[in-house]
Design goal:
With 952 residues, this protein is α/β, with parallel strands linked by helices. The chain is 62% helix and 6% strand. The strands form four sheets. Strands 8-9-10-7-11 form a five-stranded parallel β-sheet, sandwiched between helices. A hairpin with a 2-residue loop joins β5 and β6. α8 packs parallel to α10 and α41 runs antiparallel to α42. The longest helix is centred in the N-terminal third of the chain and has 28 residues. The radius of gyration is 32 Å and the shape is globular.
């Protein structure tokens, strides 16, 4: 058999070779036929789809005859040897590898770039992909489908990749050279309203030492936007302009986080230490004693023994100086000395910081090194304060340090962190015991100056016994405050009998014991369970009740008793926490006294699993996981559930409990509660996606895969693998996603439902890759299996996707028919979320047909349903599409109004969601997409102009 090598290049004028020899195709339909077949790279394309893509919806004559005639002509043009166009039942396939089509090779390289954790490799893949670009895709090929559906998506990926390459170069200190700068300037001219491209051009010009040219370019884009759209430049461009005028380096955009805890009431003393910290912040325009100015980021390391007040001092001072850091404050507890060894890794801390800076999850690279580089890039040029509490060692801290001046990092640790001092110029502040006068002042703040003065001798004795440890003083003061009528002398006598003066941290146990032994039995047991067994620092009444196996009404009084004794603190209403020393002490007590420790932990896991499952049903979105099914009751009657009035409360619970939920997943793994691991991972799936915690979502699904493997349950394994695939696809790791889906299919060999849902997940993964033809095939297979099973819910969902992809591929008549069928099914089943999605798909098809007037009512039906279902992201996305309809109809003010409503709905999700919605709109119309991004945050001048002209 003769094998022939075919290449088809479409990223520019069509270029075809067979066995290395150029092949010229005549102008006309043959070129379109070859290009459409090439974009499916070895996969069969149904004759009907070929006809629609080549001739449009109104194919002259018989579509099948037209296709067969032109296939014969194409075969002759490609040569008489082994045919390169292979016929199948009702379809044709082009015998070409994906690497033989430049547009597909371009996409694969970009996928590899997005998946790599190494910035150098990412730059290399981006460069290789961009080098394939020769001009306008499908230049000289007549096909409405290629021109309207495929080419805009390729163009958007090209521009996004080029912008990413520029960002990497600037972050790595290697901005584009003259040739690349000229290319960037030319692209900006060809895309005069793409402000993200102009922003990169300004940054590159500034980095190249051409600030005057950057200012000229800004003025050019400002005039263009004002003349053509009546709009001001985006906030990003305005900020760049301001920093260029000031002669500084343009700052990165993003959120302004304010994460500092509140300053603590009753703070006393530490005058010398506060002065030493203040001295670090000399004005940047004044030299220090040695005549030099600060050239590196400031780092203060507060060290000292446990319980000496390091965190209190750090929080107090950070709040005092926070106004000097207008770009925000980040804060994290690294839990370096937690009793169960659950220290936060620097990689996890950086992901938390990236979330706080509202970096869209799809822009967070894979791998700790790349994420640390992105974090430092975001902080460059900013003035931010970073509080890193409870560090174990220098290695845990170093990746969190900013790389450029302007930021301040405050670190607390029991360790001296000599590595930070020697290698990173950190300023050590060693915190000793409180001097007697400061200890007396602290006691007076807690108990009142009059009481201390009245019993001065007893107060002196208490101060001496507590040896200057603030934690010990706080616990003793709490005991005295609980009994205001008892004389301090009696309290001092008990202290004298119970312990001698403290000499070390180890002696803190004596103070703890003295306070613990005064507790009632229920409070003592609850302290051991809540402080000693909960996997994170804080919990709620419900978690306390589940640990105790008692009704919530029976733990409220013991919790109040523990709070009065200062063994727990209610830092926000309904949430209780305590110092790590107390957690370690409680853990020791629990090991000695509680024989039912594992049972208590199992109840806690059950609480989180069942409550998360109940919350997930209110949040919605995971149609596979028992849509509409009720939850099974916990097996242990001692497990207490949290009830939610509605979706908002369920989502708030997820947000508050996210660290505990992730830690509980690990606890369930340790206890080998594998069924619970799988259930908890499923319950977290939609929440973690919606809030942009995509790396956490992937990790939870990996845990579910491992647990399902230990169970030996193929149904559970299949579900875990396909959920993992979805999580990986969101991170741009498409090859791994497809491998997971292959494994899901293997595990569902005898499970048709599992196969159907796996094909459904694959259609979504293909769609995220921009491979609509492959997505259509997967959705069709899912539909066939759902139909065979008689699963009406799955059938309706697959029908919706089939309609969407047919519309994307240009078969608008078939798309309308399928979407309308799906609507009827969703309405019959009462599936509001997917009915809304079907209305949205129907509207998209009408919009792509050039009929925005008929699209708008469909979008409004979708908006009403999304609002009833309480899905703000979907509602905002649909409003953005309504705005695009108005924009295309020439009603710019109506478009802006819809986009303002969309942005108001997005709230904290805006930075993550805007890029996703922009991409959706780009598929429909690039100018509408760019206008949407531009009008999200209009400047005050735009608002004044709007009001002045009566457009309010």
């Amino acid at each position: 058999m003769t094998f022939r090598v075919l290449t088809v290049d479409v990223l520019g004028p069509l270029r075809v070779t067979v066995d290395g020899r150029p092949v010229e195709l005549p102008a006309g339909r043959l070129r379109a036929l070859l290009a459409v077949l090439a974009m499916s790279a070895g996969r069969t394309v149904p004759t009907s789809r070929l006809a629609t893509a080549v001739w449009g919806a109104d194919t002259p004559g018989d579509p099948g005859t037209n296709v067969r005639t032109n296939v014969k002509r194409l075969r002759r043009a490609l040569g008489p040897a082994a045919p390169l166009v292979v016929a199948g039942p009702g379809a044709y396939r082009l015998a070409v590898d994906r690497d033989g089509v430049d547009a597909l090779r371009f996409g694969c390289l970009l996928d590899e770039a997005a998946a790599t954790p190494d910035p150098v490799v990412e730059q290399s893949r981006l460069a290789a992909a961009l080098a394939l670009w020769r001009g306008t895709p499908f230049d000289g090929i007549a096909s409405d489908w290629l021109e309207q559906s495929v080419a805009p998506a390729l163009q958007e990926r090209y521009l996004t990749a080029l912008e990413r390459r520029v960002d990497l170069g600037l972050a790595g200190g290697a901005p584009p050279g003259p040739a690349e700068l000229a290319e960037l300037a030319g692209l900006a001219e060809r895309h005069p309203l793409r402000e993200s491209l102009w922003a990169r051009l300004l940054r590159v010009l500034e980095a190249a030492g051409r600030p005057a040219q950057a200012l000229e370019r800004y003025e050019l884009i400002r005039r263009r936007l004002a003349d053509e759209l009546g709009a001001d430049p985006s906030p990003e461009l305005r900020e760049l302009h301001a920093t260029l005028l000031a002669g500084g380096v343009p700052r990165g955009g993003g959120a302004v986080p304010r994460q500092l805890p509140a300053a603590i009431d009753g703070f006393a003393g530490r005058v010398a230490e506060l002065a030493a910290l203040d001295a670090l912040l000399r004005p940047p325009d004044r030299a220090g004693p040695d005549g030099t100015r600060a050239r590196s980021p400031l780092t203060a390391v507060i060290t000292g023994t446990a319980g000496v007040g390091k965190t209190t001092l750090a929080v107090q001072w950070a709040n005092r100086v926070a106004d000097r850091f207008p770009d925000g404050q980040l804060c994290i507890d690294l839990r370096g000395y937690g009793p169960s060894g659950e220290a936060v890794s620097s990689a996890a801390a950086i992901r938390e910081f990236l979330d706080a800076l509202q970096v869209p999850p799809q822009r967070i690279p894979e791998g700790p090194a790349a994420q640390a580089g992105l974090y430092r890039s975001l902080l460059a040029g900013r003035r931010m304060l970073i509080l890193v509490d409870n560090a174990r060692d220098a290695d845990q801290v170093v990746p969190l340090l900013p790389g450029t001046p302007g930021c301040l990092t405050i670190v607390t640790s029991r360790d001296q962190l000599a590595g930070l001092v020697m290698s990173h110029g950190a300023h050590p502040i060693t915190l000793g015991l409180l001097p007697p006068d400061e200890a007396r002042r602290l006691l007076a703040l807690r108990l009142g100056a009059d009481r201390i003065t009245a019993e001065a001798e007893a107060a002196e004795d208490i101060v001496a016994r507590c040896a200057g440890l603030p934690l010990a003083l706080a616990i003793v003061a709490a005991r005295a405050a609980i009994h205001p009528a008892h004389p301090l002398a009696a309290l001092a006598d008990k202290l004298r009998d119970g312990l001698s003066a403290l000499e070390s941290t180890a002696d803190m146990r004596a103070v703890f014991s003295w306070s613990y032994e005064a507790l009632s039995d229920p409070a003592a047991r609850l302290f051991r369970l809540v402080a000693g067994l909960h996997p994170v620092r804080d919990g709620t009444i419900a978690t306390a009740a589940s640990l105790a196996g008692a009704p919530a009404s029976r733990v409220r009084a013991p919790l109040a008793e523990l709070t009065r004794a200062n063994l727990l603190s209610e830092h926000v209403p309904g949430r209780y926490s305590c110092h790590d020393l107390l957690r370690a002490y409680a853990s020791e007590l629990s090991q000695a006294h509680d024989t039912d420790r594992d049972a208590a932990r199992c109840r806690l896991v059950d609480y989180y699993v069942h409550t998360a499952s109940a919350a997930q049903r209110l949040v919605g979105g995971d149609v596979e996981d028992g849509m509409g099914a009720g939850a099974a009751a916990p097996g242990d009657p001692g497990v207490r559930m949290t009830d939610f009035p509605g979706r908002d409360e369920a989502m708030a619970w997820f947000e508050a409990e996210r660290p505990a939920l992730l830690a509980t997943l690990g606890l369930a793994e340790d206890l080998r509660l594998d069924r619970q691991v799988c259930r908890l991972a499923r319950a977290l799936f939609v929440f973690l996606h919606g809030r942009g915690h995509w790396h956490d979502r992937a990790e939870t699904q990996r845990a579910a895969v491992a647990a399902a493997g230990r169970l030996g349950d193929p149904v559970e394994q299949s579900r875990a693998y396909r959920n993992l695939a979805f999580a990986l696809a969101d991170l741009g790791r498409f090859d791994e996603a497809h491998r997971s889906l292959d494994l899901a299919l293997e595990r569902s060999h005898d499970d048709l439902a599992g196969q159907a849902w796996t094909h459904y997940r694959r259609d979504i993964v293909y769609a995220l890759q921009g491979r609509e033809a492959d997505a259509l095939d997967a959705a069709r297979r899912a539909y066939e299996l759902f139909d065979e099973l008689g699963d009406q819910v799955g059938r309706a969902i697959a029908l919706t996707d089939l309609g969407w992809y047919q519309g994307r591929l240009g078969d608008h008549g078939q798309a309308l028919e399928l979407c309308e069928q799906a609507l009827v099914l969703h309405q019959k089943l009462g599936n509001l979320a997917y009915e809304a999605h079907a209305w949205s798909c129907l509207a998209d098809v009408r919009l792509r047909m050039g009929d925005p007037a008929r699209a708008i009512p469909c979008y409004h039906r979708a908006v009403d349903l999304f609002r009833r279902f309480d899905d703000p992201y979907a509602e905002a996305s649909t409003l953005a599409h309504v705005g695009a309809c108005h924009h295309l109809a020439g009603d710019l003010e109506a478009a802006r109004e819809q986009w303002r409503r969309a942005y108001a709905l997005l709230g904290d999700l805006a930075s993550t969601a805007v890029d996703q919605i922009h991409t959706q709109l780009t598929i429909i119309d690039t100018s509408a997409a760019d206008a949407f991004r531009r009008h999200l945050d209009p400047s005050p001048e735009v608002e004044r102009r709007r009001v002045a002209t009566g457009n309010s």
